Every structure is written in C-alpha cells, then in structure tokens.
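Quick one: structure for this chain?
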Amino acid sequence: MKLTIHIDGGSRGNPGPAGCGVAIENEKGEAIYEAGYFLGRMTNNMAEYTGLLKALDDAASCGATELQIFCDSELLVRQINGEYRVKNETLKDYFDKAMTGLRGIGKWKVTHVRREANARADELANIAMDAGEDMIEIDRRPHRVRSTD
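Got it. Here's what it folds into:
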C-alpha cells in the first residue's frame, strides 16, 4: 500500500512545549489518519524527527510498502536523504530510529516542501500544543491483520 504523509514538528521556545502533526492519505488522496501529538518539552528539531517517527509507526500499522513523505524541515529532509551529516548527538538517535523505520517500509521518498504546502500537519501540531495532549482528528487506517499461527 502506498501512502502520502505530511509531517511537521514545532516548539514554542527552543526548547519549549512541543508538538508534531501527522497527516496520512491513501493512494486515492483520501485522508485516512490525522493526528497532533503533544511532546512535552523539546527542541524544534527533536519535534520534527518525532513527527517522522510517529508517521512511520502509523504507516507500518497500515501495512504500508511505499511512502511519499513531505516535510518543511530542510534540516531533517537533507539529513534523511544523506545530504547533511547528523552532528547533534541527540538527533543521531532520532535519525537512526527513523532510518530503521524507513528501511522496514521498503520504498520511500522524503521531500522538502514550503511551509504553505504543509499547512495541515502544522495545524495538527499546533492543535496538540494548544491542548497539551494528543489529538486524533481522523482515524480510518486499515490496520494490518496479524496471523495467530
């Protein structure tokens, strides 16, 4: 199953109260999952990576085999695509987890987009930060059925 995902993360202060947003569409362009996650206190870059990790978990639960991910964090996109080295020790852990998750999916592409093209993910991150808790707006994910054999 091919999914299109928009992710965003942010913090109010750097570090400060943080959140991330994940918006997932199926191959028909229909929203199947939209959520904002409240992350507590962390940096903006940590929140961006957490958005990617949450999206990868959500996509894996759907049985995704191909992902097109859009993000407005140039740093995250360039690090994931191997254009920038990850120098920050804290971000290295996030990066390693993200790469493991991406390899588990199979085929993937992470693309940088301008903030305007990522409005829904940004909105979801802000909803969670305002609420101070996770907020699931849409959950129509087709969950993978596991064999009991």
